[in-house]
Design a protein that fits this description.
- The structure is a single chain.
- The protein is α/β, with parallel strands linked by helices and 249 residues long.
- It has 8 helices and 11 strands.
- The strands form 2 sheets. Strands 8-9-7-10-6-11 form a 6-stranded mixed sheet, sandwiched between helices. Strands 3-2-4-1-5 form a 5-stranded mixed sheet.
Length: 249
C-alpha cells in the first residue's frame, strides 16, 4: 500500500488540468495555427473558463477571477476577450463539464486531479505550489490531554476528515491509516457508535470546522494539512498534539 501511495504521489504532483476536446466544439476550437497569423486571419471572440470544485462558490470566484482575467488579458492575440470562473459542486459534475468542453482549465490537488483526468481525458500541464509551498503533508491530531497517543488508540472512535474530494483532508490520511492496518468505516455523525476494531470517520466540509471539532471535543481526532494546522492560534496549538503524519506530496 505505501509503495502504491508513493507512486501515485510521484505521478500526480501536478495540479492544473487542461481540457482535451475535439476542435469541432466551438468552445474549445484550436487557437493557434501553424506559422504566424496573417492580418486577414479571422479570430473569433472567446471566453476562457477556469474552474474549481467547491461548495463555496463565493470563495472560488474571489480566488480565481483575478487569474481568469490575467490569462484572458495575455491571450488576447488568440481571440480571448474575457475570463470566467465556473464552480462545480462535485467531481462528477466537473468531469462532465470537462467532457462537454465547458471548461478550459481546472485547478485542484492530487486526488481530484487524478479522478477528473481519468474520467474526462483532460491533460495535466502544470504543477501548482499550494499557498506558496512546493509540497505539504497531512497531520492527524488530538487533544493533548485526551489520552490518545497513537493511531491504534483511535479504534472505536471517530476521526474528522474535511471532504471526500480533498487530498490532504481525506485521501492522504485515509490511505495512511489503511496502509498501517487500520480499518475505516464511514459514519453519519460524530456521535455514532463504532466497533472497537474500527476507526469511524465523518466529514466536516470545512478546514475550520475540522480543527474546531477536535478542540471542542466533538470528535476524538482530525486530519488536516500542516499549513492549516500551523496557522492555529498558539493557545490552540498548545492544547493539541500530533500523533501521526503522512508522507509529503
Amino acid at each position: 500500500m505505501n509503495r502504491q501511495i508513493d507512486l501515485i504521489c510521484l505521478m500526480l504532483s501536478l495540479l492544473l488540468l487542461v481540457a482535451c476536446t475535439s476542435n469541432d466544439n466551438p468552445t474549445t476550437e484550436a487557437l493557434v495555427t501553424e506559422g504566424p497569423a496573417s492580418s486577414t486571419q479571422e479570430v473569433s471572440d472567446r471566453t476562457i473558463v477556469v474552474a474549481e470544485v467547491s461548495d463555496n462558490p463565493a470563495d472560488s470566484f474571489r480566488a480565481f477571477q483575478p487569474l481568469a482575467d490575467y490569462v484572458a488579458a495575455n491571450l488576447s492575440e488568440f481571440g480571448i476577450t474575457s475570463g470566467e470562473v465556473r464552480v462545480a459542486p462535485d467531481l462528477a459534475t466537473m468531469t462532465e463539464m470537462m467532457v462537454n468542453g465547458e471548461v478550459d482549465l481546472f485547478f485542484d490537488s492530487l486526488y481530484p486531479a487524478l479522478i477528473i483526468s481519468d474520467g474526462s481525458g483532460a491533460q495535466p500541464i502544470l504543477r501548482r505550489w499550494k499557498d506558496g509551498v512546493s509540497e505539504y503533508y497531512t497531520v492527524i491530531f488530538v487533544l493533548a490531554d485526551s489520552g490518545i497517543t497513537s493511531i491504534e488508540d483511535l479504534n472505536g472512535r471517530v476521526i474528522a476528515f474535511e471532504e471526500i474530494f480533498s487530498t490532504s483532508g481525506f485521501m492522504l490520511p485515509s490511505a495512511y491509516l489503511i496502509g498501517t492496518g487500520m480499518q475505516l468505516q464511514a459514519v453519519d455523525s460524530p456521535e455514532a457508535e463504532v466497533p472497537d476494531d474500527v476507526i469511524g470517520y465523518t466529514f466536516t466540509n470545512n478546514d475550520k470546522n475540522t480543527l474546531q471539532w477536535v478542540i471542542s471535543g466533538v470528535v476524538s481526532a482530525a486530519a488536516t494539512d500542516i499549513e492549516s494546522y500551523n496557522e492555529l492560534p498558539q493557545e490552540s496549538l498548545d492544547a493539541l498534539t500530533i500523533i501521526a503524519q503522512t508522507d509529503a506530496i
